[in-house]
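CORE FACILITY INTAKE
Project code: CF-77B
Contact: R.S. (postdoc)
Sample description: multi-component assembly, three entities in total
Requested service: structural model of the whole complex
Turnaround: standard
Below are the sequence entries exactly as provided by the requester. Do not edit them.
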Amino acid sequence: MTLTADLEAGILAAADPARAPIVQLSNVVKTYKAGSQDVPAVKGISLDIRSQTFTMIVGPSGSGKTTLLNLIGCIDTPTSGTITIRGQNVAKLNDNAISDFRAQHVGFIFQNFSLIPVLSAWENIEYPLMLLGMPAAERRERATSMLEEVGLADQRRHRPNQLSGGQKQRVAIARALVKGPDFVLADEPTANLDSKTGAGIINLMRRMQEQYSTTFIFSTHDDHLMSHADETFSICDGLLVGNVSGGR
Amino acid sequence: MNKTMSHLILAVLVLMFVSSSAQTAKAPGEGPTALEVLQAADRVRNPAQPFKTTLALAEYVSGKERDRTSLIVYARQDPSSLQFNNLVRYAEPRRDAGKMVLFKGVNLWFYDPASEASVRISPQQRLLGQASEGDVLAVNLSRDYAARIIGEETLQDADRENRDCWHLDMAATTPDAVYSRIEYWVERSTYRPIKGKFYSDSGRLLKIAYYHKYQQQLGSFRPMETILIDGVNDKLATIIDNSDYLFQDIPEAWFQRDYLPRLRPE
Amino acid sequence: MLTLTIALRNIYRNTRRSLTTLATIALGAAAVSLFGAFITYIEYGVQTGAIQQTGHLQVFRTGYFDFGAASPAAWGMENYQAVLRLIKEDPEMKSLSTVVTPIQSLVGIVGSSENNTSKTFFGTGFVPSERDRMKQWNEYGTGSQGLKQSGLRDGDLLGGISGVGLVRILGLCRQLNLDECPTAPTVSGVGDAPARPPSVDLGELTKRDRPVGNAAQRDSEPTVDLLAATAGGAPNVVGLQITGVELQSAKELDDNYIGMNIGLAQNLVYGRGDHKATGIIVQLKRTEDMPRARARLSNLFKEHGLDLEVRDFTQLNPQYTQIIGLFGSIFSFISVIIGIVVVFTVSNAMSMSVVERTGEIGTMRAMGVRRKGIRHQFLVEGSLLGLIGATCGVVIAYIAAFGVNHSLLTWTPPGRVAPVPLILYMTGAYTLIALTWFGLAVISSLASMIPANRAGRMTVVDALRHV
């Protein structure tokens, strides 16, 4: 990143109310039941994630990092505490309401790409729009433009098993962003890619984040990715142990 | 049982014809009308008193004897309907002794002392066994038939003796009459029936009867032996011998079907 | 609709498993369809046979059906010719029926004097030309296989046909050129009563009245005597020349049956009384008109104050209903078994699919698909398997039926005496086949419900772990 851009980002951050927290966790606790035992994975974490940021959550394995991400991504519910996304308390929503919420507001990028194997690249990208009930013509138009954005216009009809890792992740990114979510959750997005491809993906994600003014929340071990972080939360043993801003 | 049944039925037939044979002496002069002949037959036929007789039946196939039965018959004429009612009891063979058949007009009941049950035999069922001997019931000649004298003929009787006879042709006048048509030969001088031929509705010959061995019994000359030849299967023949005619006071109760189990004839 | 696309493509995805499942469903559908066609053919064949023999409806004096067997002659219809005319001239009945003909049932004894044999018989007097016309009935195109014409002419009051068993019992096989006819062992008729010679020469007496020769007798045909009691109770006898033999389907019938001209039957059982008829047969053009015809007849009889009842061929042939019921039960049984097999096959295939796609389910849930949507996805897949399989099955059935129908396979149906070509009546079984198709599609959907529910119940986090 150039100095100029950094400075620009910093000024913007200070002045822009849109940088208000998009996700707010307040004393969130998550305990699992393993047989008769109670296993606490997250023991009481409070944090705010500001919008339009690249936010990292780092920590060793077993630290509760994945659990925290699941909670933020609304694919798990806390045992106690509140999770507020864009002002809405999602902890209280029932299963159908949360599914709908995810469909509208949350994008996912997985370590293993997780594309639907029987659908083509283009159809995979279309899928989330279909969930939102978007009419076919508009769906197609959006998906097509997304494909082009990630540079895969020629691979539109390819099935996932015909794409390379990097290409698959690009489709995933397109899929996550096509519906204009409030934030995108990416769990170790570059873990299955070589460094060069990984770098390309990171650049793409950054570009998309800026272009679509969206928030990216990562968990990663990738140093390169960590260097892009606007904010970093360190988790250890289910508790927040560190919070670093900047990094760019 | 069936053959027994046929025997009994035959026996009754014979009895009826025997009793109906004309017997009174004829006044000289003009020949009688057919009706007069019939009426004479009926007068003799009705001794006006109940009576009893013993019958011995012998059945022959192609001339060879096949069966022999002995029966006792009690006969009484119903005063109102003029029907002859008959109660027939088996005497021999031993296995059938005690079995009884009650004839009342067109109704026939068989009674077996072993089971103490009486069963009505329908006209269908009377065709069983030697079917051609079939359902031969008491024929009421003057009541049921209209006769004409169709000629005078010389006929050989059963003993090959020539007899001068009136040849009568009778047609049924009531639907209950068993035979549609009867041919009858009656000896002119004595009014004794010599031969009879009995026809079905279809015109087929059912039975041929020969009457002979006339003897004085119960105030009239009656044939002591009757020969019946089956018209449909002429290999079959039955010879019936009468004996021991007796006037006897027979209570009317004996001719009730329900009374049969309590019957203890002497 | 992406759900459908995903479903279809997933069927292609695991070719072997899908093919096995589809094959099971298809073969099941084909088997049930073909068997359905077979029993339809049987039903039509048996029905045709029954209607050729006894018509659709028979009119009797009220009470005859229940009580007339003991003495048919006592239950004759008064003035049957008027009833016959009434039915034939009614415009509605005229449009519905093919044959309206009288019959006279009778029981009696048939005897052969030359062989000294006799037997009880059940007989039917009919109008030969009309009876022969009844045998032409062929609404279902199964043909009038194996039913011979009577060979009698309408005015012929001497001839008749007999069951094969009856001929055998009477000892007349040779004269009628029947093969495989054993001769009865001679039973000694002479009793062991002490022989007393008769007082007269019976032979000579008998000879006096013996007829010289029967002018009306045709040489080669054996004559028998029919004895019966008339309606009035008198014994009656007629002669019959057996002109033909007709093997009956049931042994009891075959040992007892004599068919003759109705005039002869009436002569025998009514004698000098009024000639009646015990029944009037009504054969219709189409079986489906039967309720209408029956109602019309009932009205006609009520209008004219006639004490008559109408019975249909299922009542006259209880065996018909039994046969239909039997094959119907077998069909149900087979359908249930195949249904169970399909349930297990589809359920198993879908379960495996769900397990394999656990990660995918997690992804879809993460993307916001509701539990219901996951269930729906798998239900659609299971239903598709059912639809495709059932359709293939029906197609296979039609092809197989075509092959069988054009082959030379034959079989002998119950109630018939001769083998007939084996036809699988696909057209007639059209409803059964449609139901089979529909049933299997529904069963497949139901079978995929449990695996689909299991898929729907998965928690997102657990599912994603399997990616």
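Facility notes:
- Chain A has eight helices and ten strands.
- The two ends of chain A are 7 Å apart (CA to CA).
Invoice: internal transfer
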